[in-house]
Write a structure and sequence with these properties.
The protein has helices at 4-50, 57-78, 90-106. The protein is mainly α and 107 residues long. Helix 1 (4-50) runs antiparallel to helix 2 and helix 1 (4-50) packs antiparallel against helix 3 (90-106). The longest helix is centred in the N-terminal third of the chain and has 47 residues, at 4-50.
């Protein structure tokens, strides 16, 4: 029982570290998503504009739309259904398990 304060301090530090990591990850993913969407938008626009004065204008527009639809489907299928990330509080759990094992060995 005398180590409860240490566990709480460790839990607090782990929570702060995980919070900072989550913020950085969210900002990075948001920036990557924004610039990815913009680049694909302008790439599709460039293809359509390039084919504008040709007989392939309608076909290129539909081709760009089909490509974006296929890309969205591939990304959706490749996205994992659940996060396989490590628990945020593994350190605290490991410390508690070590202490429980030590107490059982002593008794």
């Amino acid at each position: 029982m005398e180590r409860v304060g240490e566990y709480l301090e460790l839990l607090k530090i782990s929570a702060e570290i995980q919070g900072q990591n989550l913020k950085r990850r969210i900002i990075g993913y948001a920036a990557a998503a924004l610039f990815g969407v913009l680049s694909f938008f302008f790439l599709g626009l460039a293809v359509i504009i390039t084919c504008w004065d040709t007989p392939y204008r309608v076909m290129s527009a539909w081709g760009v739309a089909a490509f974006f639809t296929l890309l969205a489907f591939v990304i959706y299928m490749g996205t994992p259904s659940r996060a396989d990330s490590v628990s945020a509080f593994d350190t605290v759990r490991d410390e508690l398990q070590q202490d429980i094992k030590l107490m059982k060995d002593i008794v």
